[in-house]
Write a structure and sequence with these properties.
The structure is a homodimer. The first copy, chain A, is globular. Chain A is built from eleven helices and two strands. The N and C termini of chain A lie far apart (about 40 Å). In chain A, a hairpin with a 5-residue loop joins strand 1 and strand 2. In chain A, strands 1-2 form a two-stranded antiparallel ribbon. Chain A is mostly helical and about 240 residues long. Chain A has two domains: about 70 residues, Winged helix-like DNA-binding domain superfamily/Winged helix DNA-binding domain (Arc Repressor Mutant, subunit A); about 140 residues, GntR ligand-binding domain-like (Four Helix Bundle (Hemerythrin (Met), subunit A), Up-down Bundle). At the A-B interface, helix 1, helix 2, helix 3, helix 6 and helix 8 of A face helix 1, helix 2, helix 3, helix 6 and helix 8 of B. The structure holds a DNA duplex (30 and 30 nucleotides). Chains A, B: It holds the Pfam family FCD.
Amino acid sequence: MVVQADDAVFRPVRAGNPFEETVERLLQAIKLGVVVPGDRLPPERELATRLNVSRVTLREAIHALTEAGYVESRRGRYGGTFVNENLPKPRRTPAKRLARDLAGGLDDALTLRFVLETGAAEAAASRTLTPAERDHLERCLAETSAARLADYRRLDSRLHLAIAEVTGSPSLTSAMADVRMRLNELLDAIPLLERNIQHSNEQHRAVVDAILADDPDAARRTMQEHLAGTEALLRAFLE
Amino acid sequence: MVVQADDAVFRPVRAGNPFEETVERLLQAIKLGVVVPGDRLPPERELATRLNVSRVTLREAIHALTEAGYVESRRGRYGGTFVNENLPKPRRTPAKRLARDLAGGLDDALTLRFVLETGAAEAAASRTLTPAERDHLERCLAETSAARLADYRRLDSRLHLAIAEVTGSPSLTSAMADVRMRLNELLDAIPLLERNIQHSNEQHRAVVDAILADDPDAARRTMQEHLAGTEALLRAFLE
DNA sequence: AGTCAATGGACTGGAAACAGACCAATAGAG
DNA sequence: CTCTATTGGTCTGTTTCCAGTCCATTGACT
């Protein structure tokens, strides 16, 4: 009885070599707004330890990102590796090509995202947040609302990630970060409209309010509506 | 503005070396009931490709599992690597020790599990399943109900995994497999009682019924109740 | 002006993982 | 009974990755 479910468990142990994985992870930090332009990355020695990668490998990854224009390094005390003020613009890959590449992966990613994000909103609202956490949420919300169009995707991701953070479950946060990276690639192929942003901001407000009000049902419902919007937008553009 | 959220994105790129990861993955297949005693694993060449690991590394992993008594290999055509009929009993590690090891990881795992499993149940009920999928669910349910005590954990995991499968999202299935492995280690420290199993089987029936009836709300709700039971049990034993 | 701690940069030897080719056994097909 | 396709078992050279060490630079503090 060897079922077809073994696809999930006999999947690749690792997506690429440590070098590629490291590059991807650093890009994740930048593209999801975990580190913003001007921020300093942790020192190489510390970062290498945290990523469980040798310093050599980490340095190669940083070098690649430097060449790609994402970061810059300065030596000496109080030096470090800094995120560039002007990030490279994501190449607008033709949507149809992307859709073909991701193939059935689109439904996969959308399903997982739905489960994780609605679940995170509900879980966040089910806890009583510390003042620091409440403040953090509000701050991320404000920054997203104030974001210029070019920065919107990054700060939007940052806000959603913040919601995952206040669930207190690091694994949940990681999972959301991963699935969001997969979807952002697609979203970058779609033009961002001013009125979409306004609508999005209103929904963000509603979700955060529900979380701060400790109302799990409302949090889940508002998040669900929010996601439905993006999903419809995505599907419309990819067909 | 380097926030504390970087924990999630600067987490280890890989948990261990390819060898360890491969062992872990094969154990996952066995302990979650994806392959049952008597089953043959895919041929080494194919499995190595799917796991994205060299054949040497895969063979070392298989060798380790052979020594541990999980599998046995036979050469020649129609040979292969087979799951043993009598699997090693999981060592009953003292619960308190485990709880200390997992530390805050318990809440982490429980939160993620809750989100994934309730979400999976809902997502599964939101689709119209193919006859094959419906049959698969029923079969897993029946096998779990009929399971002897020693096999229960494996077949229970298998059923929950089957629910994830019928969402059509491989990533969701993988995520559930991972978090379940983390929790099973804890569950193994808890004695399994006959009446707990009966109750569990009734709940399984309710969840599967809701999914087959295309009733997302009921699916989520019944799954939620089911999980609450195990969670309470776990927490009671670990404190 | 001098000091010094923290940080990036560079080098070396060793271990792990890989790719690929080849060998050995086995059981069904003819 | 023989053949042969399939599968596990073995070996070799190469590449990647790692751990550890030392060097070079910088800027705040004294």
